């Protein structure tokens, strides 16, 4: 991969967007996703994924653009769909934890939570002096925690400090050892199971981003 600033910022923008999109929708959900420069997100998707990336971002953003008076109902719809896909109370359609997808665990422990991936993620956060600060209890190998951690590593790599190179290496290793092992599978499943175009698009964008990023750093 060409380890220049443009590559790093492109990756950083996309991982931050995916992290925000895959947290449980809150009151500031739409404002956070649109940010102060939606065109920057579209450009980043085009740079990493080509025309398809631009189309996917436009599909996601277009799924919630419209009259402000409809946003309240849309937010409620997204909360309902998020719970169906990722939370419950029924078993979620798309469990959002790396441990669930870890095929290296003993057979009797597969498709369960709190495995080695969760422990490794907790240790990675501790090593960086980071803590989970969600308003609700969450496990460290949750999809959005990992995506936001990838954003953090890339942001440190782009900060221009003396340790920038080590943080880029950490980001690339985290991609190879964790994100690429399960997020493309999750993205495909979300795109297939989602009933709302927002999550259909996010699933496709998640799968495409992680796969393309992996190919770029090989």
Key features of this structure:
TorD-like, 218 residues, 67% helix, mainly alpha, 10 helices
Chain-wise SSE layout:
Elements: H1 5-21, H2 29-34, H3 38-49, H4 51-62, H5 71-87, H6 98-101, H7 116-127, H8 143-157, H9 164-193, H10 197-217
Helix pairs in contact: 1-3, 1-8, 1-10, 3-4, 4-10, 8-9, 9-10
What does this protein structure show overall?
The chain has 218 residues and is mainly α. It has one domain: TorD-like, CATH 1.10.3480.10. 67% of the residues lie in helices and 0% in strands. The protein is built from 10 helices and no strands. The chain has helices at 5-21, 29-34, 38-49, 51-62, 71-87, 98-101, 116-127, 143-157, 164-193, 197-217. It starts with a helix and ends with a helix.
List low-confidence stretches. none
How many angstroms does the end-to-end distance come to? 7 Å
The best one-word shape is globular
What's the rounded overall pLDDT mean?
Answer: 88
Q: Output the CATH topology.
A: TorD-like
Number of helices: 10
Number of β-strand runs:
0
- Give the count of structural domains: 1
| CATH level-1 class | Mainly Alpha
Rounded Rg: 17 Å
Briefly note the structural class of the backbone: mainly alpha
């Amino acid at each position: 991969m060409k380890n220049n600033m443009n590559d790093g910022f492109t990756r950083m923008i996309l991982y931050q967007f995916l992290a925000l999109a895959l947290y449980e929708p809150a009151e500031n959900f739409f404002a956070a996703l649109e940010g102060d420069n939606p065109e920057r997100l579209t450009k980043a998707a085009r740079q990493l994924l080509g025309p398809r990336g631009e189309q996917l971002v436009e599909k996601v953003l277009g799924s919630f653009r419209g009259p402000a008076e409809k946003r309240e109902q849309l937010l409620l719809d997204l909360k309902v769909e998020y719970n169906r896909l990722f939370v419950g109370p029924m078993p979620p359609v798309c469990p959002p934890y790396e441990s669930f997808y870890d095929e290296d665990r003993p057979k009797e422990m597969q498709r369960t939570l709190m495995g080695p991936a969760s422990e490794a993620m907790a240790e990675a956060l501790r090593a960086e002096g980071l803590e989970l600060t969600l308003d609700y209890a969450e496990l460290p190998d949750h999809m959005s925690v990992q995506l936001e951690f990838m954003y953090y590593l890339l942001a440190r790599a782009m900060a221009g400090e003396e340790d920038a190179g080590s943080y880029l290496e950490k980001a690339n290793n985290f991609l190879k050892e964790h994100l690429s092992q399960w997020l493309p599978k999750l993205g495909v499943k979300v795109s297939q199971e989602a009933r709302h175009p927002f999550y259909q698009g996010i699933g496709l964008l998640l799968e495409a981003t992680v796969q393309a990023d992996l190919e770029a750093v090989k």
